[in-house]
Amino acid sequence: MNNYQTFDTVYIFNYKPFSKVCQAFDIKNFLAYNLDMTNKTDYTLPWTSPERYRSYASYDKAYTDEITASVAASTYKTTYHIQPKTGLLNDPNGFSFFNGKYHLFYQVFPYGPVHGLKSWGLMTSTDLIHWQDEGLKLFPDTVYDSHGAYSGSALPLSDDQLFLFYTGNTRGADKSRAAYQNGATYSASGEIKKFVSPLLTTPKGYTDHFRDPMIFDYQGDKYAIIGAQTAELQGAVVLAHANDASLTSWEYSKQLAFTKQDMGYMIECPNLVFIEQTPVLLFCPQGLDQAVCAYDNIFPNMYVIADGFDPEASSLTNTSALHNLDDGFEVYATQAFNAPDGRVLASSWLGLPDLDDPSLADGWQGILSLVKELTLKNGKLYQYPVAETLSLRQNQEQITLLDMPIASPTNSYELELEITSDNELYLFANADKTSYVSLTVDMLNGTLTLNREHLPINWAESYGNTRSTTFDNTTGTVKLNLFADTSSLEIFVNDGEKVMSSRIFTAPENTYLAAKSDITATLWQLKK
Ligand code: FRU
């Protein structure tokens, strides 16, 4: 294998001592915690590192029954979004079309609503709407992923084999981190086979914050981009290419040139897709200077549009300025891929690193966004729920939103409005409108502002209670499609010119809608 030499060195210095410690570590936990997780049914209590990384086998039935019942009873569960059965879900992984079905894997720690020992869970679907839960598939069960099967991507190798490229997170006894870019295949019959050795180890010049390989096809050759931190602690994206069709031998190209600006201290989850040949790079820079591109969340999810991809030079040519992918409160780690039907499909984690949401208390956190189609119109990136989403609509009603709140039968609906003058909408409201989320429309300035401060549960306030976006106001009308689902709200402006995705936590009965000035709207209840 091409960098086996390098890998061997890592193995001797980093891994071997650690693998012994690792076994002792589990046994020690087993005894020290005596499998007593009774204190852990208060999910808001802090989790220690040994608790987060103990083996799955060490959780007893009483504990798993308890967390399963707690999540099942949670009033924050969404009805048409992907969410974890228990524990914490974060990044979408391995989004692909294989064996006649869309495959959407996701990061999950099933034993608690915290970032712990991660596996890949899998959902499959023929229509991107009805998802079949296939359970956990890729486990952290080898020396090259002992502390987590971290994020990655997928590409069909044949009708029977889906190639998975993922990061194996490992920790030494001294807490040092080593990251391996590992390969595996997932067969049509549902079986995972991991490659014996990592496909890539961290090259010289980068720290072990090196992860999230995204594989893609470009003119018949297979490439991957990986999120990285340079030895100078700068965010970067590294390009690699496959040497063979079976994807067992990989080699680094160079760091991907796509900007001259400083990209913060780390880039996570890079994705390169081609929208009608135009390359679009999606990525999550951490520690990005606000002067490079302003953002409101702890970490942004951004993109650039280029006019070409040059694999020889490892560069994207004539890239645009950086843009925020989404202007809502919680969106991260968007994963996109070129689907065989020609569409570019994307799924995002409606959550953020280093942020807990109120469903933590019920034993779970994190949902995936609606599946969005990415298109370019007049050089601008648009994101809109895939056409199949229309099949969720039922019970269409023309309503007039008034100052006096009216109740929607549920908080799982789509609301469509065309707005021509300044207004303020109130959603997730209670009957007397003392509790709500507001959306202020300013037609003159072409801005929309979402405000969460009047909700009964205030959380994540350190980054502020409002988020704003701008829209093209030259037509004098702004079209809004709002998708509410119990504890989430995705707002699509002008058919996807802008998007605001957020989590909303309120009481189940707060399904009222109102507006400052009367306005008609179409309301559909959305199927489960
Ligand atoms: C992004 C991320 C990835 C990593 C994964 C671990 O949210 O930190 O960089 O692979 O989550 O769950």
Automatic annotation (TrEMBL):
Q: Name one GO molecular function term.
A: beta-fructofuranosidase activity
Key word Ubl conjugation present: no
Name the catalysed reactions.
Hydrolysis of terminal non-reducing beta-D-fructofuranoside residues in beta-D-fructofuranosides
Signal peptide residues are none
Cite the annotated pathway: Glycan biosynthesis; sucrose metabolism
Q: What is its EC number?
A: 3.2.1.26
Residue intervals of the Glycosyl hydrolase family 32 N-terminal domain: 81-385
Q: Where in the cell is it found?
A: Cytoplasm
Its BP terms in the Gene Ontology are: sucrose metabolic process
Q: Which GO terms describe its cellular component?
A: cytoplasm
Q: Which Pfam families match?
A: Glyco_hydro_32C (PF08244), Glyco_hydro_32N (PF00251)
| Gene3D superfamilies found in the cross-reference section | Exo-inulinase, domain 1, Glycosyl hydrolase domain, family 43
Taking every annotated instance into account, which residue ranges of this chain make up the domain Glycosyl hydrolase family 32 C-terminal? 395-517
- EC category name: hydrolase
SUPFAM superfamilies noted in UniProt:
Arabinanase/levansucrase/invertase, Concanavalin A-like lectins/glucanases
Per UniProt, the keywords (alphabetical) are: Carbohydrate metabolism, Cytoplasm, Glycosidase, Hydrolase
Record's function text: Enables the bacterium to metabolize sucrose as a sole carbon source.
UniProt family annotation: Belongs to the glycosyl hydrolase 32 family.
Q: PANTHER family, per this entry?
A: BETA-FRUCTOSIDASE (PTHR43101)
What is this protein identified as?
Sucrose-6-phosphate hydrolase
Name the species this protein comes from: Pseudolactococcus piscium
Question: In the record, what lineage is assigned to the organism producing the protein?
Answer: Bacteria, Bacillati, Bacillota, Bacilli, Lactobacillales
